[in-house]
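ARCHIVE CARD
SHELF: 3
SLOT: left
DATA:
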Amino acid sequence: MSDYSTDLEIANAAHKKPIEEIADLLDIDSDDLIRYGNDKAKLSTKIVNSLSKKKNGKLILVTAISPTPAGEGKTTTSVGLVDGLCQIGKKAMICLREPSLGPCFGMKGGAAGGGHAQVIPMTDINLHFTGDFHAIGAAHNLLSALIDNHIHWENKLNIDPRRITWKRVVDMNDRSLRDITSGLGGIGNGIPRQSGFDITVASEIMAVFCLASDIDDLQKRIGNIVIGYTRDREPVRAKQLNADGAITALLKDAFQPNLVQTLENNPAFMHGGPFANIAHGCNSVISTKTALKLADYVVTEAGFGADLGAEKFFDIKCRKSGLEPDVVVLVATTKALKMHGGVKKEDLTEENVGAVSKGCQNLERHIKNIEKFGVPVVVAINDYVTDTEKEHSAIINYCKNLGIQCTVSSHWEKGGQGAAELATEVAKVADSNSAEFKTLYDDELSLWEKTKLIAQSIYGASDIIADKKVRNQFKKLEDDGFGEYPICMAKTQYSFSTDPLLMGAPSGHDVPIREVRLSAGAEFVVVVCGEIMTMPGLPRVPAAEAIGLDENNEITGLF
């Protein structure tokens, strides 16, 4: 295989071990596997429940600087790091989110890593995998159908069709579905009303799925989902529609963690997958907690930059689950830092130490943000073949002046061997027990003040702004008893501001709030900022146009 092989070619050339051998590395008996072919399986509920009294390993969170079109390689670094930990003799595994079909066929690409730091089988993982997302989409839309059916017949709950907040979902980027009118065509088709679709990864069912501690907690959370309001403006929950049992039944198999392997045959869980710009951006609590019982070091990631994924990992996932990270790995690339320093994409291959140093302002903001949560930081430079030693030195020296260890990692090119130095440093910090984790805010703070604190402390904003209607939404949620919930910010991932073109480390901007959404099952409040959409659209030239089958019926064009 040449040095210029595609991710797909590298993945297809990998030597996959039977999934039973991967399970054996974790002391999991083959009888506790539910196999999906030879190379992937789910863990039975029995083995998951049996691990509760075992000691936890070290939890390592991988996050990144603000993403750019140049790429940061957060997932690639996560995979390389776990392979590196295994290279230096540690018992380690990785916990990742499952990819959404939307970005696979759109612009962002897959979520199984890249180069020689991938999780396999790559095509299966990026497409249908074990069917979890289909189950989540079906569960969500079952609730949608039950709502409309209840109103169609007698509407005993007095649901106001104008105040239904529960949309439908599809796991695809389809801008034409953002706003729709349903129920047209006569009385037999239901009551006409305005509604819309979100992408499946923005579904509250996805959030509930990823935050539930066990199957009973999953059903309880589903029952607590608020689907809309009565004509008296009282919240209506899914359990009032007797929907929680059937929805949980649809999710029973999907709720079991998925076991796969890296290119170097190290164990990986991939389970759940909320986006971090419009949802909470972390893999399932049940897979993370299970992994911590099975390995001494568990690497997990949080979506997009640390201002979104990491903040939500800390303030939502950790708050709700009791998880406490031991160290954070912050990923950066010279190309991305040059873009934050003002360099155009077409000029990124040229050495520009000045732009790298200027772009490090973005890196510094993320470092200081993470330190607010009491967790030590290690910076990882995801090495590119076009990088220069001077550019690497500029980043390393910048970090040194901040008192932060910075390590170059060549996992994309060399796999675990290229990440061994990073792995050694990360393990040392994790083993130092220096983390003193804390959330950014207390539950008792008002919803408005929580939102403002995130904007000011994490985004560097001057203030948050909203019209009277939105301010009233905040007050209504507190009056209804949801004031102690944490905040899930829906915001562009490309900037600390709500302007995706404002790169670097902007300060003093206002964060406009367009909408507030209650997720009573997930137990957080979604605050929609700026122009962010919970149903993305496809780019001018979608990635789907390059995907197909070859003469051997093998998938081509997938990264």
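SLOT: right
DATA:
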Amino acid sequence: MSATATDLAPSPRGRAEWLWRRQLDTYPSTGRRVLYLAITVLATVTLYYELYVGGAVATLLLTNLHMSFAFYVVILAFGNLIGAFGSLFAGLSDRWGRANLVVGGLLLTGVFTAFIIPAATSKWVFGIEFFVVGLIEGVCLVATPALIRDFSPQVGRATAMGFWTTGPVLGSLIVAVVGSATIPAVVHDPRFWTHEFRICGIVGLIVFVIALVGLRELAPQLRDQLMVTMRDRALIEARAKGIDVEAALRHPFRQLLKPDVVISAFAVSVMLLIYYTAVGFSVIYLTTVFGFSVKDANGLGNWNWGFNLIAVVLIGVISDRFRVRKPFMVIGAVVAAVMTVIYLLQAGHHPSYYTLAIILALGAFFLGVAYAPWMASFTESVEARNPALTATGLAIWGWILRIVVFISFLIIPVMINSVTPLINYGSTVSAYATQYKSEIAFAQSHPQIVATATTYKTQLANAQKFAPELAVIQANPALFAKLATYPNPAAIPPKLAAQAVAAAGGGAKGTGILTTIAANGAAIRGVIAVAPKLAAVAPYAAQLTALSKVPPPVFTYLKAHGAAVQKAAAESPGQWKSWYWVCVGGIIFFLASIPLLRGRWKPSSARRDEEEHEAMVEAELAKLKT
């Protein structure tokens, strides 16, 4: 049915109805419009902060909840799959509105992040709770950019979408900043991961209160029209009285499942593989491949997300200034691909912290150069087909994005199977290898000596214990050979006994040594029997003594896990390189898809289109006045 002027008149509201009745019946003034845009961006930042916070403490999560890397990645993958269907559900916001979805999402994610997820004590519980947050984020992924579109005309759209894009980027940056500021250099308690979630959840609940009080949205008759410039406001409000909302929303997916929408959404999704890899695995990658601490890995994230944040806002403003999107997409994607190649080539080498920081900063900056104009161009392409179906178009994009991430996250553990040994055992193996470096090196370089010392451990101990007695025997072999012919010491002739006492040092000393020899004959003979073996070991007495002081569990642990860790460390750089080449391929596919989107390549052509549109608006307003 058609809307009438009465439909646009404000209806009386009860005291509490402002909590859920959020529709605006007239287009807001600039100040109020900026306020609603700001709250939407703040909500987006918070939701992504809550979704990504686990990445800052991924290594602690895996250790504390006994997750393998493969299990962790599968959790992330299915979280994205569930989020994909949340995105499809959010397409209904074209019919039901957007603001309440965002406010409700903030409440639920805040409660889960602050209280429910930190209470998890098993990987399965954590996974299920993460799925809930992923579902809500999938809904808001569509609802928040739809709100941004509603409150921003096409001239200025890239700036607005640039600010919206700060949501995932600033969310990632906050994760890195808070992590690098609050995670100690050495974490002794794996449950420390809950600390980061609680901080994040409390922030989310504060932003929920702000959105509950301040967030509004346009009535359907206003948002279902194409707005190119702010000068269109009067015409849009006049047209709104005759808009048939039901007709505009009929068969929404049939209207938008077209190549320019679907292929473009897929292309940007595969371009963003490098982004989602950084979100989920940068801490794991930087700690296992380059040996950085969790704190320093989050510090490198500050560079990555900080420069990406600068780019999406700056290029949004510049793109609106020149009225074009596509040239910025091309420049950004080309440089981002080059920087990704440079980044992946560092694996297997030992770049410094600041070398990686510069590479990450440049790559992230130009990825933002490509992405912010794309968001503007994509919404404009959807509007060209039906401006009433903006949320449906964004739902298609959100669904495709989540499916791509889901599939890619299932592929990652197949391509990169070296992470689990490095995370679960690598730090302990490394600590043992550092603490007992010289002892382990000696054992590895002198295996025969260590084996001999182990075989004749008792004889070596007896050699030390009876060193004076053995020295006397070795100095007088003939005398002691003769004494050995008398099994009964009482039968030894007095003269021979006196010679033995004198040889042993005379007096009480000599008598004592002979007494010890007589009482420990078997042990002393055992030492003499293997004397050549013990002679080969003797030069390494100091090293063997140090080796004997290493706790036995150390070598047991190294024997059980050392080879696996060493093998994983050797294979890991190559496996990560292969995945990053896939990411480069995604960026190249994005480049090939750019011509499908609406928009001009030259600023002069874009300005001419704008002038023609303004002339049309003036003509229609003139008709309405007559």
